[in-house]
């Protein structure tokens, strides 16, 4: 058996290509040029992690945080004029992460119609105001959402005296709802899809809708379930009102920032994820310092800044999340204190339980490494 050498195969291939070229020329046809594909090469370096918003916040020494004008459990002022609530605590945690001081926050109360313009104009650095993440808002409002800190949905608050078991029994009912909100659109979609007649009672604000409901100008008040729970606590006899079982929409609530500063979006996103991961790992306001010294868990050590440089990667200190946790606690602590079991709202964790809880929820921290 004759063994063909590599040189033989190369010579044969070259002769074959030459023969084909000559034959083509003999027919008066131009020889086709064979172009070998070249590997794509790029020398572009990764962009620097540079945030104009972070620079402005550090320069002024204060975070400007947009919040609701007054929503029990989420953002409201107590009898000493101090801002309290679920959203307000996330503002303070972000200030602690970025500036090392949870009190370096200027709270800016905003109406629904003001909130996105306040971001675009630079009046606020972050909007933490019970705002649903939707496609249209990112496409048309010049904002970007940095994550989800509360999974909500829209429902209906009614008087128990009406003896209603389901929202489908609201045929012909007057429904109080806020103007120019996703709530108004969701109500219209839900009733139309089911062929149920209703009469909208549209108000300028959520507070106005609650007040109209309290005056019995309508039969039901529709808004996010969390807002309905808050509104019920402000009514004369809260126990005389019930939230119907139907949830007619998905309302993923979370912090928004203005478009164009991707680095700042990441800072807000990873601060939120750090607080979520802290709960998953059992890191609390009380034990964060002790665990930073004693834990051998690599994930926990990265989170608390003992090893790795995840903080400096995004322009912050090594212990940025430890500062946030020690300021306001982990996600679960913030939830329980303001809207959960330790609050007047007493909202169940439900979808807002950790992914690995029993029963599990949708709260899931992205990997910090």
From TrEMBL:
Please name the PANTHER family in this protein's record.
AMINO ACID ABC TRANSPORTER PERMEASE, AMINO-ACID ABC TRANSPORTER-BINDING PROTEIN YHDW-RELATED
Q: Which organism is it from?
A: Brevundimonas viscosa
> What are the BP-aspect GO terms?
amino acid transport
Q: What's the protein here called?
A: General L-amino acid transport system substrate-binding protein
Signal peptide range: 1-26
The UniProt keyword set, sorted, is: Signal, Transport
Gene3D superfamilies on file: Periplasmic binding protein-like II (3.40.190.10)
Protein family according to the UniProt entry = Belongs to the bacterial solute-binding protein 3 family.
SUPFAM superfamilies (alphabetical): Periplasmic binding protein-like II
Q: Which domain of life is it from?
A: Bacteria
Q: Which residues cross the membrane?
A: none
| Database matches in CDD domains | PBP2_BztA
What sequence ranges are listed for the domain Solute-binding protein family 3/N-terminal?
62-291
Q: Looking at the keywords, is Signal present? A: yes
Q: Which InterPro entries match?
A: Bact_solute-bind_prot3, Solute-binding_3/MltF_N
